[in-house]
Amino acid sequence: MTEIRGKGGESEKITINLGAVDLGQIDLLVQEGFYSNRTDLIRTAIRNQLAGHADVVKQTVTRKAFVLGLQHYSRKDLEALRDAGERVQIQVLGLASIADDVSPELARTTIESVTVLGVLQASREVKAALADRMR
Question: What domain of life (predicted)?
Fold first, then answer.
């Protein structure tokens, strides 16, 4: 399994609803040059909140044995687990990816459970095969 810690290059799009007053205040700060655009302010605010809770995140990641960052599972990784008669519990805070050439059968044979706080990248078929194992 390839483990890459740190920030991923890709981003996920989210949608939020804001009241008119909050949105107006954001636009004012952008207009006054504090931020380059709305997204810049929102990203900064989220990063500041995450930084304020960094200790809690770190303790929880350690306690729950999460991989923090990126974790990739190749077909070769999963075949090695299958051949050894072993199974994996995927626990990732960040991005977990399962290679496109992993069959649903191989995934079901080798993946005991999937807990991803963030993004799981896998084929539709693999996700469907693991649906009852996702938490």
Answer: Bacteria
